[in-house]
Design a protein that fits this description.
CATH topology of the largest domain: Nuclear Transport Factor 2, Chain: A
Radius of gyration: 22 Å
CATH class of the largest domain: Alpha Beta
Structural class: alpha+beta
CATH architecture of the largest domain: Roll
Shape: elongated
Strand content: 5-15%
Mean pLDDT: 80
Largest sheet: 7 strands, mixed
Order of helices and strands: HHHHHHHHHHHHEEHHEEEEHE
Number of strands: 7
Low-confidence stretches: 77-106, 176-180
């Protein structure tokens, strides 16, 4: 392995696998590229001549690099993003900030979407709500079949603690409607789908027909450009707010939010905003909670659902 050409050739054999691991851990193609590049640099600075299983060694390295990036992302993450202004430009902003990289590392928003679709948008959205340790455990063990002992070594935790992390992550990934609420779920889904369609189409009349006269919309500070919590009351006011976010609605999807049907905005699988809806027995929306604060988003149990148009 001392020969640089042989070292590079050996690394290239595993590049696609390493990128797949990093992408599922980080949810960003450009971040995954960075993690793979860092792994290569660490490989060139290490003596791997005695490594029996290079694939396993590289997977461990890229996992540790990705875990550090996840933890750093959490520490540096701002309080939230304005709703809807920053959310609507999130993909474009990430693409614009990649100047100076080589052609193979330049990832357009369209490429991000294609890659997200290939992995599974629903999975990426839910993974984005897990803690770094939960996400790493689920990805390495459940998606890439790494033994718990090896995952534990990456995390610096015991195998039993790692199993508990995996169990908690699975419960959040496999979100489902609450037991005994099948009829309620069907009504919620029809109303949420109609609300999303009306928002996308800018149909004020349809929106008014779906909203209770006294509907109340609450939004946390991260969901409002002014960075202050906001409350809107009444069908006319709330419907105008929905029309103002029509651009974002076009990229939103139906989802289970803590067991009830809601709507989420997650461009390229990166969760930005969730609308938790309360639907009455009369099939009217009585409350909308707009959630954008990162810590609140992480506490949600989410699962993406197709809407009536299969989007």
């Amino acid at each position: 392995m001392a020969d640089s050409d042989a070292l590079a050739a050996a690394f290239e054999q595993h590049r696609d696998h390493l990128h797949a691991v990093a992408y599922r851990l980080l949810g960003s193609a450009s971040d995954a590229d960075d993690a793979v590049q860092d792994t290569w640099l660490r490989m060139t600075g290490a003596d791997v001549s005695a490594v029996d299983n290079l694939a396993a060694w590289l997977t461990t390295v890229v996992a540790r690099v990705s875990l550090n990036m996840l933890r750093s992302r959490r520490r540096e993450q701002p309080a939230g993003e304005s709703w809807p202004d920053a959310a609507e430009t999130a993909v474009a902003g990430r693409a614009a900030g990649r100047g100076g990289q080589g052609p193979q590392d330049q990832v357009s928003p369209e490429d991000e979407v294609v890659l997200a679709d290939s992995v599974g948008l629903a999975l990426l959205v839910v993974l984005d709500t897990l803690t770094p340790a939960e996400r790493l455990t689920f990805v390495l063990h459940d998606l890439f079949a790494m033994p718990f002992g090896d995952v534990a070594a990456v995390l610096g935790r015991s195998a039993d603690a790692t199993r508990q992390l995996a169990s908690r992550a699975r419960r959040r990934v496999r979100g489902a409607p609450r037991p005994g609420r099948a009829a309620d779920f069907g009504r919620q889904r029809r109303v949420a789908s109609a609300f999303l369609a009306a928002s996308r189409g800018g149909d004020l009349g349809a929106l008014l027909a779906l909203l209770d006269a006294d509907v109340r919309l609450t939004a946390d500070a991260a969901a409002v450009p002014a960075r202050r919590p906001m409350v809107l009351q009444g069908a006319a006011t709330v419907s105008r707010g929905a029309l103002a976010s029509a651009g974002r609605a076009g990229l939103s999807q139906l989802a289970l939010v803590n067991g009830s049907v809601g709507i989420l905005f997650a461009p390229a699988g990166r969760l930005q905003v969730v609308l938790a809806l309360t639907v009455s027995e009369q099939s009217l929306i009585t409350a909308i909670d707009v959630i954008a604060e990162p810590e609140r988003l992480r506490r949600l149990q989410l699962a993406v659902l197709p809407d009536e148009n299969g989007l």
